[in-house]
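2.7 Reproducibility. Because tokenized structures are sensitive to small changes in the input, we list the exact sequence used for Solute carrier family 35, member E4, including any N-terminal residues retained from the expression construct. No trimming or masking was applied before prediction.
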Amino acid sequence: ALLQEERLDAVTLLYATSVPSFCLLAGAALVLEAGVALPPAPTSSHLWACVLLSCVLSVLYNLASFSLLALTSALTVHVLGNLTVVGNLILSRLLFGSRLSALSYVGIALTLSGMFLYHNCEFVASWATRRAFWQRDRTGKGL
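Resulting structure tokens (single pass, no recycling of outputs):
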């Protein structure tokens, strides 16, 4: 409604809502996590610093995503999101020794090959045309 009534663009609206979003996330973390874990020692603020850092990083990630969306397309943001998931899987394997199943490795390979195809679509189309997978001059067929 604000986008239409006030004629705000999406990025301006995101900047206007990022501070309330941060307050909601911090408040929810304080309320929901208070009874679950043991309370931190009164002199130790390590846990609350981690919660605060998590909230700040979440807001910054959303700001970066929407800024990227304003500069590129939604498909580019989606492809970068897939790359983020692959990066998280690889980092968890390298840093924490997490076990990945064969299906996880197949998913990583498919995601990376899909990103290659997305980034090099003209090269793939010219290769497929040379190999006669499809003809460019036929109507309704091919690229």
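The chain has a mean pLDDT of 75.
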